[in-house]
Amino acid sequence: MASKMHGVKKCSSSVEVLSVLRDFRRTKKFCDITLKCGERNFYAHCCILAAVSPFYLAMFRSGMSEVNCEFKTVDLAFLSVSPSAVSVALDYIYGEVIEINLENVFELLVIADYMLLNELKNDVSNYLCECLSVEKPDLCFETRRVAELYGCKGLYEATNSFINAMFYRLSHTSAFLELSVAELESFLESDDLSTNERERFEIISKWAANSRESREMELGRLLNEYIRRRTLSPRECRQMFDRYELLPNLFILDMFEERFFRPDNVPINKMHRWGRQGQEVILVFDNDKPQAYIPGLIPWHPIMPMPETHGTIQSCDVKQFGVCYWRDNRPDNKFNRLAILPFPKLLENCRTNAENGSKFWCSCIS
Fold first, then answer.
1. Less crowded by CB within 10 Å, the N or C end of the chain?
2. Which InterPro entries match (predicted)?
């Protein structure tokens, strides 16, 4: 007869292991590694670091002389982070709830990238996405830089989309004027940049005027490569140069020949890129519960009941273009981009149409 198996429940003390290890770290009991940052030393346990961080697991397995000693020391000076950020990261590793804020967020990203803490990296990225705002232009551009540097693809795409949508408004800030020529070009060459030709001309002129000695030599090339001159008139361009006190060189003067431009009395042609003035409105409908959202300006908020024929939306501050999203009554409630629709600058009545059985409406004011 086979022996009878008897199951035993797990040790009740095992759920308290992390709590006990946190106490051990605070009291420096059984610690076998020191992380040195500036004038502070942080004591930890190799087994915990190896269990959470793939980087430390690989380092302890490597057989390096500095990690084969009984008590290990790792100097984090090369990370250029503050001791307070290291302390927060260790709290995270030991299972504590941490606070991510604008003072430590970029340093935590550096540490997460170094220790290969993907979960912390995602938490930091989510926090930075929530902080994107036209009221924080420095944060927007810096977030894009660090997202690219540390390979945060989702954060980079989200930040890039936000900046492209709000670029004209962000161009009025000092943070924009500090962009390098490579950064400026990376935006100008994007098809998603929500600016028209006149706005592009203004943006390039303003950027060049901020540092004439080093940037005026780039002015002609940028205007030549990123402006569709046939959509502008020479008068508009000269006015812009006068506004920013720019002196066109011979190359730029050649560009200003009348044959390259649209005559003042000729309407804008089809080559014109319609800008959204750096703003867009997203409207989502679920029968009688429509909501509106303006990125960086107004959070999701309910609007008036869905009209049968037409109505008005007073809360959407959008110029020239609105972006309309629609949602049907499917159980998955997925969002579907419907169209980018042109509007005049004056307030229009909401319009309802049928698209695959679902209604959509949109409006804008100047």
1. N
2. BACK, BTB/POZ_dom, SKP1/BTB/POZ_sf
Strand order in the sheet with 282-284: 282-284, 291-294, 298-302
Q: How many CB atoms lie within 10 A of CB 348?
A: 16
pLDDT in tens, 125-164: 999 998 988 889 999 999 999 999 999 999 999 999 889 8
The residues, ordered by sequence, that sit 6+ positions from 123 with a Cβ below 8 Å of its Cβ are 100
244 closest CA partner among 277, 284, 211: 211
Reference 347, options 268, 269, 281; nearest CA is 281
Which uninterrupted H or E stretch holds 325? strand 321-326
Residues in the chain: 366
Tell me whether residue 34 is exposed, middle or buried, using C-beta atoms within 10 angstroms of its C-beta: 0 to 12, 13 to 18, 19 or more. middle
Single-letter code of the amino acid located at 285? F
- For residues 290 and 64, what is the distance between their CA atoms, to the nearest angstrom? 61
User: Distance between CA 225 and CA 188 in Å, rounded?
Assistant: 9
3-state secondary structure of 34: strand
pLDDT tens for each residue of 256-291: 555 445 555 555 554 455 454 434 555 555 445 555
Cβ atoms of 354 and 319 within 8 Å: the answer is no
Q: Which residues contact 112 (CB under 8 A, 6 or more apart)?
A: 89, 118, 120, 121, 124
CB 219 within 8 A of CB 252: yes
Query: Please, are residues 361 and 285 in contact by the beta-carbon 8 Å criterion?
Result: yes
Structure tokens at 6: 């008897």
Which residues, at least 6 apart from 97, have a Cβ–Cβ distance to it below 8 Å? none
CB 341 within 8 A of CB 362: yes
Could you please report the per-residue DSSP string of 78-97? GG---HHHHHHHHHHHTT--
Q: What is the DSSP letter of 151?
A: T
| H/E stretch holding 215 | helix 212-226
The DSSP element (H or E) to which 192 belongs, if any, is none
Which contiguous run of DSSP H or E holds residue 362? none
Nearest to 85 by CA among 62, 113, 57, 58: 113
